Inverse folding.
């Protein structure tokens, strides 16, 4: 059983457990198809089984774990169909968010790009995922449509998981941020059509690449992320964690050199 850090006692233990398990899944420390039980999680997180049960119910609702038959659940597999469908929806939402942000000529900071490039130079997969999420969340917030953001957030944890797979590959990390930088330039310069097209191409490229890599199985994909992250996190615990919600600096259009 993968080690994860015991939790501090608090009223929101179920939420903490939910976040800790999500982090372990997104970072590949719980592989696709891996069986996990309430007893083992309760022991590792040093809590009773009740908050673990509540966390598992939330994870099942989100489609991140499924019934395994008998005792426990297992991490949902990553299938080509699921990734293709998820990215089909994501490309539409991301494209609309980029278009609306560009239409408003949103004053987004290029420090988002600098933070992302800095994260790619390290070995912390969680930091890379958070920087990527922060970039896209900033665009959604800049679009000025809270319903659009809420629609995207419904699949945010699935996106985080797939980002973990993508960013575990060293060659993909820098190209992702090249594409992000181009998208940001189009948004701040007020080019809605071009920004939307760039967002669509970015999503389509990522989705097609992942589907192509699923030639073996979803488990192989998950294990790739796990092994790539192992040197820096073999002994690191999955701590309770929530997706970031950065506020872009409205005063800066200057690109921060990575």
């Amino acid at each position: 059983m993968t080690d994860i850090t015991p939790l501090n006692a608090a009223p929101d233990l179920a939420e903490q457990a939910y976040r800790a398990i999500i982090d372990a899944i997104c970072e590949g420390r719980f592989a696709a198809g891996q069986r996990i039980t309430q007893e083992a999680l309760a022991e590792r997180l040093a809590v009773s089984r009740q908050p673990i049960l509540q966390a598992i119910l939330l994870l099942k609702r989100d489609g991140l774990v499924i019934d395994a038959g008998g005792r426990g659940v297992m991490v949902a597999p990553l299938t080509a169909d699921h990734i293709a469908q998820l990215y089909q929806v994501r490309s539409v939402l991301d494209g609309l968010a980029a278009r609306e942000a560009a239409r408003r000529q949103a004053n987004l900071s290029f420090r988002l790009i600098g933070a992302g490039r800095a994260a790619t130079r390290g070995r912390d997969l969680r930091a890379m995922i958070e920087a990527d999420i922060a970039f896209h969340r900033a665009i959604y917030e800049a679009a000025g449509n809270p319903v659009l953001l809420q629609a995207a957030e419904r699949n945010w944890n699935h996106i985080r998981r797939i980002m973990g797979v993508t960013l575990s590959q060293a060659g993909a990390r820098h190209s992702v941020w090249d594409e992000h930088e181009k998208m940001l330039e189009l948004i701040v310069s007020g080019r809605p059509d071009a920004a939307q097209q760039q967002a669509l191409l970015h999503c389509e490229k990522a989705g097609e690449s992942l589907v192509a890599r699923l030639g073996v199985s979803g488990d192989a994909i998950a294990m790739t992320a796990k092994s790539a992250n192992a040197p820096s996190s073999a002994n690191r615990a999955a701590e309770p964690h929530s997706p970031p919600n950065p506020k872009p600096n409205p005063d800066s259009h200057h690109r921060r050199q990575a």
Remarks:
- The mean pLDDT is 81.
- The CA atoms of residues 96 and 177 lie 20 Å apart.
- DSSP finds eleven helices and three strands in the chain.
